[in-house]
Amino acid sequence: MVxxxxxGKVYLFGEHAVVYGEPAVPCAIERRARVTAEPRxxxxxxxxxxxxxxxGFTVEYDGSASDHPDVDVADSLLDAAMGxxxxxxxxxxDAADAPxxxxxxxxxxxxxxxxxxxxxxxxxxxxIAAGTTxxxxxxxxxxxxxxxxxxxxxxxxxxASRADTFCSATGGAVRVEGEDCxxxxxVPNLPFVVGYDGGxxxxxxxxAGAEGSETSTTSPRTRSPPSAMSSGGxxxxxxxxxxTNSVG
Length: 248
Fold this sequence. Notes:
The chain is α+β, with helices and mostly antiparallel strands. The chain has one domain (2-212, 219-240): Ribosomal Protein S5, domain 2 (2-Layer Sandwich), CATH 3.30.230.10. The protein has 5 helices and 11 strands, in the order ββββαβαααβββαβββ. Strands 4-3-5-2-1-10-11 form a 7-stranded mixed β-sheet. A hairpin with a 4-residue loop joins strand 10 (239-241) and strand 11. It is globular, with a radius of gyration of 17 Å. The two termini are 17 Å apart.
């Protein structure tokens, strides 16, 4: 059994424009997603999700079945959440050359789902790190970031940039422009407050909507007065752990 965690993110500059290859500077925040992966012998995938700003759910399936949790959230958002797990486990299997590997996966996150704080990227990064380590494969940070990007690219139907996943895998503040991804060195911890109004949005749908309108400047999820959610530095890193010990 292996547990990995990865941070969410906020953009200092360049959100959305980064999808079109423009430069952006996201940075990691203290809120994290934690994924525990335990291999199983039957090739099936059992996912238990907690603390995703919706009622927790458990679903067991073979990766292509139509099992669907009964929770009170938009189908598009729930399908996307399950899609990230499916694609991340597929990447872990591929990296470890274990295409038939089964897993019990537990997800716990204090990053609100659909709030624009990188919950999907954090889950993808942590799931790949946990899955590959559980299967005995040791990936570099760059390899995890690349595979996590493939997850978002697949689920968002090509509308993803490398910014969220690179930032979540690397930690700290990063600069991303197209395929040029690099950490920004010697950035101090930066205290800040992020406003969260409790709403949720589908990233793919929001990006598609932005492409169709040049006049929309306000996301629906930010129209209500925000409340203080968190403050923190920009230096958390993803970490690996056994069931009892954490590293990093």
